[in-house]
Amino acid sequence: MKQNIEIEFKNLLTENEYNSLFEGLHLKTKDVFSQENIYFDTVNFDLKSKKLALRIRIKEDTAEITLKSPHKKHLLETNITISLAEAYSIKKSTVYFASGMIADVLKSYDLDPRTPLKIFAQLKTERVEQINRNSIIVLDKNYYADKIDYELEVESLSAEEGEQLIDNLMNDFSIPKRKTLNKIIRAYNALHSKTADD
């Protein structure tokens, strides 16, 4: 189990902008990999009300539980590596964290860690990454709630370096700055919009 500060900058893209970045950065289709994000909350969305986000991320041969909590202008990630078998088992059952670091974070927000959590959204991402000094450039194609969106992310060890890098990329490729919510919020909004339409 580990904790780290997530310093990340992101911007939604059109399909054409995504393709331009993919080609302009000389990325390769063979380097694209898939991952599945499964998002959890209580029935009353108590985590969301505290600006917390809990997910399981499943890749080809690894899985990880992550609780994100506010930390200054960024996010604190509390991570637990689990097996694929554990991840798929959690998908089929109610989950809660009665002890451990995730429970400690939940308690610090006056949440009962024994409260059952349920899946409320799932999102599949096709991702490709490129290292740039102390940062990672990430291009995502996301599928959720019958929607597809495209996203540029820059993950960095330094807020200043990460912000400068994403600004340079957007200037170089003539991409306008767009308000970009986190994936969990976009999935939540899309799901509730779809439910309202139904």
Automatic annotation (TrEMBL):
<dbReference type="Pfam" id="PF01928">
    <property type="entry name" value="CYTH"/>
</dbReference>
<dbReference type="InterPro" id="IPR009195">
    <property type="entry name" value="Uncharacterised_YjbK"/>
</dbReference>
<dbReference type="InterPro" id="IPR033469">
    <property type="entry name" value="CYTH-like_dom_sf"/>
</dbReference>
<dbReference type="InterPro" id="IPR023577">
    <property type="entry name" value="CYTH_domain"/>
</dbReference>
<feature type="domain" description="CYTH">
    <location>
        <begin position="4"/>
        <end position="194"/>
    </location>
</feature>
<protein>
    <submittedName>
        <fullName>Adenylate cyclase</fullName>
    </submittedName>
</protein>
